[in-house]
Amino acid sequence: MSIKTPTDGKAWDFVHNLASEAEWTPGLREIFEYRDLGVKGGSKGDYVAHVVRANGKKMTDDVQHWHLHDCTFQLVYVLNGWATFEYEGQGVHTIRKGDCILQKPLIKHREIECSEDFEVLEIVAPGNFETRIVDAPATAAAAE
Q1: CA 7, 8, 14, 18 torsion: positive or negative?
Q2: What sign does the CA torsion over 27, 29, 31, 35 have?
Q3: Which of 8, 65, 83, 106 is the most exposed place for a label (fewest CB within 10 A)?
Q4: Tell me, what's the pLDDT at 55?
Q5: Hey, is 19 helix, strand or coil?
Q6: Domain ranges within the chain, ordered by starting residue
Q7: Residue pair 69/126 in contact by the 8 Å Cβ criterion
Q8: Which of the four CATH numbers 3.40.50.970, 3.40.190.10, 2.60.120.10, 3.40.50.720 does domain 42-133 have?
Q9: What pTM, to 2 d.p., does this model score?
Q10: Whether residue 144 has pLDDT greater than 70
């Protein structure tokens, strides 16, 4: 069997991220805390994987406005709770525990609301992706 390796020649490292040693830190959003799973370092920045969970803070932030991520891959798997998002050209979707979203690269989207126990696994490429606030797309259905 032939297995492809990273195309730029960087050898990835084996990573075993222990739940018992999990560190939760602030991240992109004030209402969430983040657990880095070590994939960014292990993949030499090709991917990032983290668990994101609600931290109990009640506030709005920029990510609740229309935005996009400068990335080539973004997968979101819901571990707990629920959230409602609106996606450019796709409408409003509520994701619940066990649901998975594969976001198209550069798709405009916004969070409308989420549960207090919302928790997701998110995997993104590249590991150093940027988030940009953008104008609402013409297909936007729900009012901000």
Answers
A1: negative
A2: negative
A3: 8
A4: 84
A5: helix
A6: 42-133
A7: no
A8: 2.60.120.10
A9: 0.86
A10: no
